[in-house]
Amino acid sequence: MKNMTGYLFVTMLLLNLMACGKSEVSEGSKVEASGKEASDPGAVPDGSEWELDMTKIDGAWTVVEKQRDIAMELVPGGVSNVLETKLPEWHPDRVIESDQGDGVIIYEFFGKTEEGEATKIEIMWQQGRAELLVNEWLH
User: Fold this and answer.
1) I want to staple 121 with a disulfide (CB 3.0 to 4.6 A). Which of 10, 35, 42, 109 is the partner?
2) 61-94 as b/e: b if 16+ CB within 10 A
3) Are 38 and 31 in contact (CB under 8 A)?
4) What is the pTM for the complete model shown?
5) Residues 71-95: tens digit of each pLDDT
6) What residue spans define the domains of the chain?
């Protein structure tokens, strides 16, 4: 490892994935985004990628968000219903599941409208309820 941050990223990712029955990961890389540490994805054996956003809280590195790309079929029905109500005929090209680690999951939907305009919709999922977010979610 070139730096301690990379080591922490791999260690935190490995511990997290071991809890899910995974035991091997490939190393991601550190980037700095909007004043916090973030990391490019590392891959697990099935090829899926997880991105962990980390920041120092009280001097200790802490995972503040876990993200992964998912298929639309994996989105909870309540979230899908809110999206369909907002944009009935729209189908996203990309879906990101962003677990905040406190029971809140933000689903980010990306795609283009019929007019070709890039669109991003965020929906919060918490305690079985979905809410369309008007402002972009911040940690």
Assistant:
1) 109
2) bebbbbbbeeeeeebbeebbebbeeeeeeeebee
3) yes
4) 0.68
5) 999 999 999 999 999 989 899 999 9
6) 4-64, 72-132
